[in-house]
Each structure stands twice: as C-alpha cells, then as structure tokens.
Amino acid sequence: MSGVRILVGTRKGAFILSADGNRKHWTVDGPHFAGWEVYHLKGSPADPNRIYASQTSSWFGQIIQRSSDGGRTWEQPGIDPADIPKIDEVQEDGSMPAPAPSLFAYDTSAETGKPLTTHRWYDGTPHPWEFARVWHLEPSLDDPDTVYAGVEDAALFKSTDGGQSWQELAGLRGHGSGTEWDPGAGGLCLHTILLDRQNPDRMYVAISSAGAFRTDDAGQTWRPINQGLVSEQIPNPTAEIGHCVHNLAMHPSRPDVLFMQKHWDVMRSDDGGDAWHEVSGNLPSDFGFPIAVHAHEPETVYVVPIESDSLHYPPEGKLRVYRSRGGGHEWEPLTRGLPQEHCYVNILRDAMSVDTLDQCGIYFGTTGGQVYASPDGGDHWTAIVRDLPAVLSVEVQTLP
Amino acid sequence: MSEAPSARPARIRVLLPDQLQRLAKLEREVTVTVGGPVTQRTVLDALEASFPALRGTIRDHAGRRRPKVRIFACNEDVSHNPPDEPLPKAIASGAEPLFVLGAISGG
Fold first, then answer.
1. What are the CB-based long-range contacts (under 8 Å, 24+) for A27-33?
2. What is the pLDDT of residues A249-302, one digit of tens each?
3. How far apart (Å, rounded) are the C-alpha atoms in residues A215 and A397?
4. What CA–CA distance (Å, rounded) separates B65 from A151?
C-alpha cells in the first residue's frame, strides 16, 4: 500500500513522520541530529530512499547528512568509516591529516565567477560574503547523486557526488546585481529552488531580500524576474532588485505558472516569471511565508496568512490555511481541526508541502512544534504531533 | 607551564561538547595520540584524523578556530594562543584533558 513520509526539520533536530495511504495512524521517528538546527531535509524524486539534510550550528558550522535507506541511517558524505586513518599511520611520519575541503567555498575565480567580494549590509555598507548555512536542499529530478543547495550568504551550489563536494553556480551572484543584494530579517539567504520538469535547463531561485531569478541554461547565467512586484518597504518599490520574496511554488505540469508569497502580497506569473501580478484578493493578510500548489489541481493554491512582518502570528489568533481554487484572487479559509483562538505561532517558508496521493494531502509545521496534516486537500486537519521543537521545514515524500 | 616537545607519542585526553559527541557518536572524553609537539594544532589534527566527522566543526575548513568555540587547558582559556604553542605539561602527560566547548551565548 502506498504511504507518505514527512521530513521535518526543527531547531533541535529532525523527525520523520510516516503513515500508510490512509494517513490516519502515524509513527514518529527522531530526533535525528539532536540538538542541531536542521533547516531542511528533502528526498530525491529519483530514489525516495535517498534523503539529504542540512544540519547546522552557529557554533560548529555546516554538516550535510545523507541517507540511502529512507532516513533510518545517515552518513556525512565523504566521511566513510573505512576512510578513517589509523592513528599509528598518521603519527609515524608526523604528517598532518589532509584538511577537508571547504564544503561551500564561494567561487572567486576570474574565469567563472566575475568574483564578487561584497554584498550590501543592513546599513547599506559593503559587506563581505560569508557562508553561514544551507537553507534549502533540492535534489535533482532524475539523479539521486545530484543536489542543489541554497545557502546564506545567498548563493547556489551544486553537488554531483551525493553531497560530498560542492561547486558554486557563480553566474547567479555574478550576473551583475549581487553587490546590491540586501539581507532580509533572517539573513541574506537563498531559500527557494524550483526545477522545471519539462525543461532541465530552466531553474528558479528566490533570495531574501534580492528577489527571484531564473536560468535557462542549467545555471550558467541568470537574470532577475521581478517585473510587476511592488514593495513599498524599499526606496524604489518597483526596482528590479531588492524584493523580499518569501517562497515560490509551481505545479510540475505547468512550469510556466508560478505562485509567489512575497513579504507582502501573493503574486502569480503565467510566463515563467517574466511578469507578475497580484492575486492576494480577499486574504485577511497578504503577508506570509509558505505557498503550495495542490498535486492534481494546478489552479488550487494554499497560503497561510500572517498578521504582519512585525507580528509573526496569524490574524486574530486564528490559524487558517487559505485555499484558492482559481489560481488566486478568491480565497477560502480552511479551519476544521485548526486552533481558532489564542494561536500565535508562525509557519515558516519551507514548512508546507503536499503529497501526490489520489486525494492530495497537505501538511505544515509551526514554530510552536505542531505538524498538521489534511488528507483531503485542506478540508479537515489533525495534528500529527504537537510538541516538537520549532519547525523549520516540512517536506513530504509519497511512497509507492 | 609549557614543555618541550616529547619524543614519545603522547596520549592526549580531549573533552568534547554535547553537540559534537552526538555528531561523531563519541563519549564526552576521547583520547588521541600525538607524535610530535603537543599543541592545539597537533591535538586538533589528531582529533580530526581519528574522528573525521569532527572535521570543520571545531575549526572551519580553512583551519581557523570557529568564533564560538573555546579551548581550555588546565582552567586557562588558550583559545587565542598561537596554535603551535606547546600546551601545558599536564595536558601533554594526559593528567588533564583539553577542554573544547561551545561559547555560552544564548543556550
């Protein structure tokens, strides 16, 4: 029987929630990487047993974890126990162990990078690029060993050896506007990566707070795609660069149709991001973080309105997912099973996902540690777990 | 306080913070062998050679101590000492452990 596996990243570890296709009875496995921030986990579409995880710490740096058995066991790519040198061998010649290569080294080569040395800091001054963490891991659609990483300070990296080594796709930072990128409240992070199933050369990324970008040559060159965005918080509200895009979503059958949750405003593009128009419609607030598309209805879109950028909780203390069945403009609240009073959690940008079972399930996690599931497209919700650490990300795998 | 390099391999005790114990699946105290001078650099080199999962965590991938990691020897903060400076005799003899910890900043 088919089933689902939910990969949950939290402030203090990762959890894996599993159920059969009925999605009524769940098992909870974890914490994995206890005590570490796990910004994101995601499974390979080409091999659901292959899962990548971003394990990070302000103290001890960035770790990439990889599982080849659906999350039961994990390894750090490149650190095979068989490779551990024997202590005597190390000491006999007095040699030092070879330093591990830097996992995420920005490309500073003149040939490929047009190397940038600074972006803009919060106060407008130039600031050097400094790697902080991996926000998002996006496995290739057809190769389990190929995976993309969106990092802070914003850049896009690619690995073709299962996460062991990483190379920057430097054309993004180097396309010309990189020196004008400003950090958002969470840092200058590349948090969204969309792959086009119909065109392997096309890819989208989003950066807070620089905007959305597209490549049509597999990541070699990039251009900003922010026409139509209006952000009153920046000096030029219609500038090409500087919009705080929170999340992008796409239905795989219609890759030219994109949906965007911006800092404020829910937006839509019907031409691969060349132009955007607002579809916030009757939402109680058009501020929010995640946005998702129904697995079988390309015009059915989900958002979770949040009161404002200073009040990171739902309007009126009511946790409501909003669904539009017409691609925006008209939205209906989905509340059954969700708290409708005294609820002051946030739902972060990577913390909502859908499964692809016949009756599409939708899932989201909160900063209060709940993970909610709806097996019927949002009509009814139940909490799978209520007391996890703050949830940073939710990804769903639909299993055969 | 410090001593000249020993000719015999030294068995150095190292105390690890909780997060690194979990990462590398180690106990709080581990022992590593250092063949030459006992310094921060040689101890951390030996530590990373013995337990590769720790590479990049105490020092970044360029070999620099991470800003929020501190290293104590015999109750003295040696984090900012030159990495090639010999560590105290009590560390080199194994009488005292080298103490690696995350800075206490916000829990």
1. A28/A384, A28/A385, A29/A71, A32/A65, A32/A71, A32/A74, A33/A63, A33/A65, A33/A74, A33/B22, A33/B23
2. 999 999 999 999 999 999 999 999 999 999 999 999 999 999 999 999 999 999
3. 26
4. 21
Chain B residues whose beta carbon lies within 8 Å of the beta carbon of residue A105 = 61
Buried b (16+ CB within 10 A) or exposed e, A32-46: bbebbbbbbbbbbbe
Tell if the CB–CB gap between B35 and A94 is shorter than 8 Å: yes
Per the CB < 8 Å rule, is A61 touching B60? Answer: yes
Tokens of A180: 């004008």
How many Cβ atoms from other residues are within 10 Å of residue A128's Cβ? 11
A88: DSSP letter: H
Residues A6/A7/A8/A14 CA torsion (nearest 10 deg)? 130
Tell me, what amino acid is at A400? P
Q: Write out the two tokens for A258.
A: 């994109």
Question: Over the stretch A219-230, which tens digit does the pLDDT of each residue have?
Answer: 999 999 999 999
Q: Which residues of A touch B42 (CB under 8 A)?
A: 96
Residue B42, classed as helix, strand or coil, is helix
- ipTM of the complex in this document: 0.84
Q: Is the pTM of this model over 0.90?
A: yes
The vertex-A191 CA angle with A206 and A150, nearest 5°, equals 100
